[in-house]
UniProtKB/TrEMBL annotation:
Every Globin domain range: 4-140
EC number: 1.14.12.17
This protein's record includes keyword NADP: yes
Name listed for the protein in its UniProt record: Flavohemoprotein
Gene3D superfamilies found in the cross-reference section: Globins, Nucleotide-binding domain of ferredoxin-NADP reductase (FNR) module, Translation factors
Record key words, sorted: FAD, Flavoprotein, Heme, Iron, Metal-binding, NAD, NADP, Oxidoreductase, Oxygen transport, Transport
Leader peptide range in chain numbering: none
Class of enzymatic activity (EC top level): oxidoreductase
Family to which this protein belongs: Belongs to the globin family. Two-domain flavohemoproteins subfamily.
Cofactor(s) recorded in Swiss-Prot or TrEMBL: FAD; heme b
Organism of provenance: Komagataeibacter europaeus
Keyword RNA-binding appears in the UniProt entry: no
Length: 402
């Protein structure tokens, strides 16, 4: 267990908040520059998040949140759990942490210059290792649980693509079956798989993809949207076929389906944000749950993934769906039993009229979409503990940190 931080250290960290507000991004940008100079460490990261500055921005927000909450670290519990789950998915180990410490402390000294006094550097060293020990301990618990679970494993396991299906003109599903023929760990609906990929011309890449299948013991399914100029999404769509072997780590993530009996459920998604909800709906369907609201925004009917599945669930009374087409006007024939189609994006005004304060809301999609939805739900009186969200990428939006 990590030793508590002393009063002096916490006081110094709090005093650094203005400096982090002014220079946090410069510090994390320099930190990643140092860290990624090591090829072995570089391979642990999604480099696309470096090119657009997303990961440095996200880390800057996280470090600032840590400093602001240094006297109340319970407020960071959700963020710590998400980080630990992502680390496990990427097979981060205790021996990786000293590299990060050296890069972070070196970046603080580099950016702050003479302002980085010995007392400040000592305080940040203590603060870093305090948090690192918490993460290492939690990650060890998750690794042990994965190893002990039926069909579970630790590290990278080879899976063969046993089937691929075009779900829309932009989304393709890949069914993954373990090469060793043994069972797989049953995932919790909403979790994701992490992949270690060797992309020709780019080398080693890491990606996380939500599992879109209902829990089972034989295989997993991921559903990937082709992104414009996406290094990995283009490769998956163009070059990964039935028989291709991919390296996969065990299911991870804390954005999971809670007790479906406790309250009504509303799923809010945009684009490929629907993928964890397809897994959740599969689990709910198996339990014959009713009273689910499914609200999704996509560009056109041609980009609508899993449309037949959603319409089937609606026809059977499993859910009520609202489908928004941001770049098309739906035809009347596209409405069906339990399904209403809309032209344009889902707006905060529309969502505000539809709020059910007793419901638990699950939200997944682009950061801006989630930010607007969360703000609308909170303004409409939905308690914060009934609003759950998952982000793809590094959460570089301050609303989504914590």
């Amino acid at each position: 267990m990590a030793s508590p931080l002393d009063d002096k250290t916490r006081s110094i960290i709090k005093a650094c908040v203005p400096a982090l507000e002014a220079h946090g991004l410069a510090i994390t940008t320099e930190m990643y520059r140092r860290l990624l100079a090591n090829p072995d460490i570089r391979d642990l990261f999604n480099i696309s998040h470096q090119k657009d500055g997303e990961q440095p921005r996200a880390l800057a927000l996280a470090v600032l949140a840590y400093a602001r909450n240094i006297d109340n670290l319970g407020a960071m519990a959700g963020a710590v759990e998400r980080i630990a789950e992502k680390h496990v998915g990427l097979n981060i180990l205790p021996e990786h942490y000293p590299y990060v410490a050296d890069a972070l402390l070196g970046a603080i000294a580099h950016v702050l210059g003479d302002a980085a006094t010995p007392e400040i550097m000592e305080a940040w060293g203590k603060a870093y290792w305090f948090l690192a020990e918490i993460l290492i301990g939690r990650e060890e618990q998750i690794y042990v649980a994965h190893a002990a679970a039926p069909g579970g494993w630790v590290g990278w396991r080879p899976f063969r693509v046993s089937r691929r299906v075009a779900e829309s003109e932009t989304v393709t599903s890949f069914e993954l079956t373990p090469e060793d023929g043994r069972p797989v760990m049953r995932h919790v609906p909403g979790q994701y798989l992490s992949f270690r990929l060797d992309v020709p011309g780019y080398g080693s890449e890491r990606r996380n993809y939500s599992i879109s299948s209902a829990p089972g013991s034989q295989s997993y399914r991921i559903s990937v949207r082709r992104i414009d100029n996406g290094v990995v999404s283009d490769w998956l769509h163009d070059s990964v076929h039935e028989g291709t072997v991919l390296q996969v780590s065990a299911p991870a993530g804390d954005f999971t389906l809670g007790n479906p009996v406790a309250a009504p459920i509303v799923f809010l998604s945009a684009g490929s944000g629907l993928t964890p909800f397809i897994s959740m709906l599969g689990a709910l369907d198996a339990g014959a749950t009713r009273g689910v609201r499914y609200i999704h925004t996509t560009r056109t009917p041609a980009t609508e993934a899993f449309g037949p599945y959603i319409r089937d669930l609606a026809a059977r009374g499993m859910l009520r769906a609202d489908l928004f087409y941001s770049r098309a006007t739906p035809q009347a024939a596209q409405d069906a039993t339990g399904v209403t189609t809309h032209a344009g994006r889902m707006t905060p005004t529309w969502l505000a009229r539809e709020i059910d304060r007793t419901a638990t809301y699950y939200i997944c999609g682009p950061d801006g979409f989630m930010r607007d939805a969360i703000a609308t739900l909170k303004a409409g009186g939905v308690p914060e503990n009934q609003i759950r969200f998952e982000f793809f990428g590094s959460a570089a939006d301050a609303t989504l940190v914590g």
